[in-house]
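Our preliminary data section would be incomplete without showing what the modeling component actually yields. Below, a chain of 217 amino acids is followed by its predicted structure, encoded as tokens that our downstream tools consume directly.
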Amino acid sequence: SRRELEAIAELALRHDLYVLSDEAYFDIRYSGKSQSLASLPGMEERSVLLYTFSKKFAMTGWRLGAAVAPKEIAAVIAKLNVNDESCSNHFIQCGAVEGLTGDQSEVKALLATLKERRDAAVDLLNAIKGVRCFRPNATFYLYPNVTEAMTRMDTADYNVFRTNVLKNTGVSFCTRLHFGRPLPGERGKFIRLAYSGINLPEIREGLQKLKEYLDSL
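Predicted structure:
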């Protein structure tokens, strides 16, 4: 949010810090406009922005991205990069140029498809007993709260929960523990689902199986 960006900027300016801002999902936004940290007053000269072609242009696996940084930092990044991987091959570079300068209708269609998947998945998840899911305005991930569902299964163990779900439904997902240790006092239980590489019929089929299983507990 704008408020969060301003808080980060204030901290960086007060302590004379550089900020590494991962903006991989900058263009995967369903309404409104994304704002870069570098656009805030005083932050252009102390921000290092990371960008990838994997999300907006569905070029995952082509391993192409960019860093936008002050000249003195960009020079160091270039020195490290040329010794680490030399450069991206020609066809990937040509694909990136086409993505940036070509017809953007496919990009818009991709975003519309992701939005349709998001809406279907969120509605289906919120129809399951013990599951609550926020409707995000960006990215292609969902982070449902499954605290009540785990209580109904009589377990507080993420591994027990995900293993039981997998065995009984075939549905697989990451849990909160895949993204770091819980914070002190954290009580909610969460899982993470991605809808970038799965079509609507598969989403409906998988979440219907999940609903039937969790509703039966």
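The first strand starts at residue 19 and ends at 22. The chain has a mean pLDDT of 95. Preliminary results of this kind motivate Aim 1 of the renewal.
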